[in-house]
Amino acid sequence: MTGLVDTALQAVGVSKPSAQAASASAVMNTYSRFPLTLVRGKGCWVWDDQGNRYLDAVAGIATDTLGHSDRVMRRSLHRQLRRIQHVSNLYRIPEQEELASWLVHNSCADSAFFCSSGAEANEAAIKLARKHGHHRRDIERPVILTAAASFHGRTLAAVTATGQPKYHKGFEPVVEGFDYFTYNDIDSFEAALQKHEADGPKVAAVLIEPLQGEGGVNPGDRTFFQTIRERCSERNILLILDEVQVGMGRSGRLWGYQQLGIEPDAFTLAKGLGGGHAIGALLVKAEADLFQPGDHASTFGGNPFACRAGLTVAREIERRGLLQHVEQRGAQLQQGLELLVERYPNLFEGSRGWGLLQGLVLRDNSDFTAPQLAAAAIDQRLLLVAAGPRVLRMVPPLVMTRREVQQLLERLDATFANAG
Questions:
Q1: pLDDT at residue 83 above 50?
Q2: What does 88-131 look like in DSSP terms, one character per residue?
Q3: In angstroms, rounded to a whole number, what is the distance separating the alpha carbons of residues 68 and 276?
Q4: How would you class 182 by CB atoms within 10 Å of its CB: exposed for 0-12, middle for 13-18, buried for 19 or more?
Q5: Would you identify the CATH topology of the domain 2-68+322-419?
Q6: Is 235 left (phi over 0), alpha (psi -120 to 50) or beta?
């Protein structure tokens, strides 16, 4: 496989950076980067510094909702920069009020707190959960239950909430007050709940993704989530959904919880909300809104520029009918992936996902890993992202056309034919 990846990288005019070149960079070495330098984008396409064009099925990892250099986004943010870009939350911010109103009007929530990223949104949710545990359930040391194979961010509490030990390694001691259950396994969830509630209240909240993205593109099971909703309601436990990757239309519904037939007490957003610009949010129902002035804050959270980006995404989702579009293009992509699974039975065991968040699942005995196939796809001028070692993930801009979905499938086919 190493030869295949090397050949792919050479074909696009790049080579692996030498240790000397890597060490010369002033940027900290925290990423395993593909040796591509992307300098321009338009819609679902990006160009590198050598002039090569790539079909982008990564979209900033489910972030560039309207694609690259969208005309409406450019015009909207240009106007905003001519007015004002940042003040602080010492003052009322009209753009923030407007975005919060749109989010509340179009969801089950009653109010919103804005920050700059998904990890920050989940940190806010964790603090809200602990306050709920102390003030509503009279718990001295609250516990938050999360799922194995989850991903909630890289800050210390969010990475502890992440049910993947590989992300904890080297950063111990992790934050206390978290325990884990198996995703979509009601017996595992019931056991975790009983473990902490048998001798009195201990659980403040359940924090869970409607669809696990980083953990392998695992869609939630409706019965599982409806049972969790019932247990949380019975015990006054907050149900908090991490919609950082699946929210803002990626599933074909505006929110992932709509795929599951439930409503959370709170949910978190980021990624697609800003269409490529840094913004995150915690949305809560009125009965879960416990924060008071001084409880939580964010210097950049909800500034005029970021909220204008969020408003532009929100309005364009409505104006362009992107929810129906994502449903249609997602079905097209899913059907095509199923055909590829049939065509390459030695590579893949199946596909799964919602809307334009889809994954190809490699067989346990496959000769390749998902990161290796993502690297090999560069040879076909296609950008993909892995979701763990065994799932090849596709999260293109929501504006991807029928023809572009077909091109994506053809480039996948060519990648796998070369790998086989």
A1: yes
A2: -TTS--HHHHHHHHHHHHTSS-SEEEEESSHHHHHHHHHHHHHH
A3: 8
A4: middle
A5: Aspartate Aminotransferase, domain 1 (3.90.1150)
A6: alpha
Tens of pLDDT along 313-333?
Answer: 999 999 999 999 999 999 999
How many angstroms separate the CA atoms of 207 and 383, rounded? 31
Tell me: domain 71-319, CATH 3.40.640.10, correct?
Answer: yes
- Within a 10 A sphere around the Cβ of 168, how many other Cβ atoms? 16
The domain locations on the chain are 2-68+322-419, 71-319
Longest distance between any two alpha carbons in the chain, whole Å: 64
pLDDT-derived band at 10 (thresholds 50, 70, 90) equals very low
By the 8 A CB rule, do 120 and 220 touch?
no
Give me the sheet containing 203-208, strands edge to edge. 111-115, 280-284, 266-269, 238-242, 203-208, 143-147, 178-181
Place of tokens 């004002």: 84
What stretches of 236-294 show up as alpha helix (H) in DSSP? none
pTM for this model (two decimals): 0.94
